[in-house]
Amino acid sequence: MDTNRLSKKIQTVLNSQMTKEAEAAQIYLSYGCWADSEGFGGIANYFFRHCQEEREHMMKFMQYILERGGTVKVEAIKAPPANPKNLQDCFEKTFKHEVENTTAIYNIVNLAHEEKDWATYNFGQWFVKEQIEEEKLVMGLLDRLKIAGGPKASDESLFALDMQLGKEPDSATLARDVAVEKP
Ligand SMILES: [Fe+2]
Ligand SMILES: [Fe+2]
User: Fold this and answer.
1) Centroid of ligand 1 to alpha carbon of 24 (angstroms)
2) Which stretches make up the Ferritin-like diiron domain (predicted)?
3) Ligand 2 center to residue 93 CA distance, Å?
């Protein structure tokens, strides 16, 4: 008796997303190492924490596939891209990466909707929400770097930014949550 509750297509996209999350973890690990070697210990720490979050996302996909009686395929992870040129480049690439990931999540949700796989659709919503938060966090990084002087930021202002990010909490407060949960 076949107890797999996932269609072939859904199983394939979920497996590939699991690998994508692992890839994101590797990218942030490499950015963290780069930032640390550039002297930005706070920013390095920020990326290391994010690396951990992406690993947790990978595990979430893995657990969901197993829960639905599907087959998990652990695949090779691509090597992270070359080191960023500077902080601006680093944050811009991080933002682009998160947006690409959001698109991949939307594709899963779209497919689940098409197939009327409401379990996967519901599972995917957690990631839709998570991506809002992740994009917001990186937008915040870009904003603060801009205030610090952008590409022309002085060493002092970068130092202050680095100190600040080292102390930052792991998640962003979303306007929607503030309005809904703490009116
Ligand atoms: Fe993720
Ligand atoms: Fe992410």
Assistant:
1) 7
2) 4-149
3) 12
51 CA → ligand 1 middle, Å = 9
CA separation for the pair 72, 145 (Å, rounded): 40
Residue 142 is part of which domain span?
A: 8-181
Q: What is the mean pLDDT of residues 32-45?
A: 95
Q: Give pLDDT, residue 176.
A: 56
The count of structural domains within the chain is: 1
**pLDDT tens sequence across 80-94:** 999 999 999 999 999
Separation of 145 CA from ligand 1 center, angstroms? Answer: 23
| Alpha-carbon distances, residue 145 vs 1, 32, 138, 152 (angstroms) | 57, 17, 11, 10
Distance CA 126, CA 143 (A): 26
- pLDDT 10s digits, 129-155: 999 999 999 999 999 999 999 888 898
Which residues are within 8 A (CB) of 152 and not within 5 positions of it... i.e. 6 or more apart?
Answer: none
Q: Looking at the domain assignment, is residue 73 inside a domain?
A: yes
Residue 2 lies in a domain: no
What's phi and psi for 151, nearest 5 deg?
A: -65, -20
Q: For residues 135 and 99, is the Cβ–Cβ distance under 8 A? A: yes
Contact 75, 148 (CB under 8 A): no
From the CA of 18, which ligand is nearest?
1
Domain assignment of residue 1, yes or no: no
